Amino acid sequence: MIRARVILPGTASGRALKVAALSFWGGVDPDTGALTDPSIAHHGERIGGRMLFVAEPRGSSSSSAVMLELLRNGHAPAAIVLGRVDAILGLGIVVAREMGWPAIPLYELDQREMDRIEDGAEIGIDAEGQLSRLRT
Amino acid sequence: MQLTSDERAALDGRDGPAAALAMRVVSETARMMGAERLVSVESAHIDGCLYHGDSGTLFAERLVEGGGRTSVPATLNVGALDLLHAGRVKLDTRKAAMARRMMDAYVALGCQPTWTCAPYQAGHRPRTGAHVAWGESNAVAFCNSVLGARTERYGDFLDICAAIAARAPDYGLHRDANRHATLLVQCGGLDPRLLAEDALYPVLGAWLGRVAGGRVAAFAGLPRDTSEDRLKALGAAAASSGAIGLFHVVGVTPEAPDIATVFGGAPPAETITLTGAMLRESYDRLSTTSGAKLDAIAIGSPHLSLDEVRRLLTLLEGRRSRLPFYACTGRHTLSALEREGLLGALGDANITLVADTCVVVAPILPNIAGATLLTNSGKFAHYTRPNTGYDVVFGSLSDVAESAAAGRLVRDMSLWR
Q1: What ipTM does this complex have?
Q2: What is the rounded distance in angstroms from the CA atom of residue B252 to the CA atom of residue B195?
Q3: pTM of the model as a whole
Q4: Could you report the per-residue pLDDT of B98-112, keeping only the tens digit for each?
Q5: Which residue, B155, B171, B156, B167, is CA-closest to B15?
Q6: Residue A136 has pLDDT above 70, yes or no
Q7: What distance, in Å, lies between the first and last C-alpha atoms of chain A?
Q8: Nearest 5°: CA angle at B307, between B305 and B309?
Q9: Phi/psi of residue A42, nearest 5 degrees
Q10: In this complex, do B242 and A59 lie within 8 Å of one another by their Cβ atoms?
């Protein structure tokens, strides 16, 4: 059983999308949710509705703004699981909540545990951060 | 988490709805990051004024409507428009109007319209040891590392909320224990000609960003007279290739008088001895193409200082750029250039000045499919491809000047081979 630490609460499910390192600013198109950085895995795919696993959150402080825009326009992931807690993405979610827009949960998960998640698998996560593999 | 009675009163709406919202965002961030309390801040640098979509404009206007007002000095990072040179940014009319509304909202909140990512060269220099709340990754790295003031890497929205609340979460780089280095990077064995070259510093920064992870590094063996412009280039590159908020240079930066002090008396957890081969790899990784094609040149990330513009003019020796050439800077440097009578020389050199914004955050570069940009900035090198679609070639400022004059790519790579 894999259990993530809950940073911002909620429940979610969706297909896992795993990236090693990602900056939302410069890495995600705020209009579409597409991964724009040619140097990362899944380049061109959209993060909307996915369970996004980011082992190493990186780079710009503008990532909060990209997160907020994705939440407002409906292209946000279903949930984000970070290898290391990072306030920048969380802020975008906190502000969305303040603005009355849809928010998503945020979790932290140890790198070794994250390695056990299969890329592309259907994953559910509950309010306690318990991850489960869903039958499809 | 412990809040003071003053902080609770703000949360309860004593100072109006915007101040309450700001305090909620600051305290919620503190909770997320496991902080036990908030810390008073003396100043803020705000990155949230760059338009990424209507959501950010609506948030800033919500704060204005709620009577929000900064309670500490706050400078503004770049916006998505060049307010001094109409037409330079090719944003569509609707987005330009929203970007303008956003910039106006931040000014209405009491922020200073500095519009620069190098506020530390525009007179905003908190004292060593001061707690501040700064956004924009290069500004954060410079503020912590070179000024020795204390800020975490604050994202958009927390910056303005901290400026209104005059508080930030007390965690991370606000705390003594997290400011000591654990990674020692020995540079003493590097070729002295490399240490004397400006282009080394962004290459070093890009390398650090990739290897450091969440660690604080201290460089040893860099020249004692390493300039602020070189430290700025190092920090900007490190903060774009990685999540670097603080680095030290032994004998140069304020918290690193010697190795024992910067490591807090503990031995380094890891020591890396830098070699020419490691730097060569980092240098090569800053370019996305090895082709010889070149369509445009851009410098000024972070925004150019007066010294950097002077060096460019010296290297150009009166020659004109034969390629579109963008030099990005802030109003602080523009007014210095005007004072020194250098604007004419830049015009004669066919250099396009970009103020208040830059070429990777706003659509400025000519719209050419499959084009390539030359830059001496590690940060531009990192963001050009994803943000503009251009391929990028990294070179020194001399390469920039020679390529501009020749109208084709000219790079001297002898130092790196």
Answers
A1: 0.93
A2: 14
A3: 0.94
A4: 999 999 999 999 999
A5: B167
A6: no
A7: 19
A8: 75
A9: 70, 15
A10: yes
**Tokens for B397?**
């400022």
- Asked if B169's CB is within 8 angstroms of A87's CB, the reply is yes
Angle among Cα B234, B118, B76 to the nearest 5 degrees reads: 140
Residue of A nearest to B33 (CA): A87
Q: Which residues of A touch B239 (CB under 8 A)?
A: 59
Residue showing tokens 């002090």:
B261
Domain residue ranges of chain A, discontinuous segments joined by +: 2-133
Which superfamily is assigned to A2-133 in CATH?
A: Phosphohistidine domain (3.50.30.10)
CB B135 within 8 A of CB B158: yes
Distances, alpha carbon B343 to alpha carbons B68, B262, B349, B354, B402, in Å: 38, 42, 10, 12, 20
C-alpha to C-alpha distance for A48 and A39, rounded to whole angstroms: 20
Expressed in percent and rounded to 5, the helix, strand and coil fractions of chain A are 20, 30, 45
What pLDDT digit, counting tens, does each position of B390-415 carry? 999 999 999 999 999 999 999 999 99
Q: Which residue of A has its CA nearest to B20?
A: A98
| Backbone angle region of A133, left / alpha / beta, with phi > 0 → left and psi within -120 to 50 → alpha | beta
Q: How far is CA A7 from CA A115, B37, B159, B371, in A?
A: 20, 17, 20, 42
B161, containing H or E segment: helix B158-165
Cβ contacts of A59 on chain B, cutoff 8 Å? 137, 239-243, 382
Structure tokens at B221: 């063996």
Out of A31, A59, A101, closest to residue B137 by CB: A59
Q: Residue B209: which H helix or E strand, with range?
A: helix B200-212
Summarised one tens digit per residue, pLDDT across range B57-87 is 999 999 999 999 999 999 999 999 999 999 9
* A60 has a chain B CB within 8 A of its CB: yes
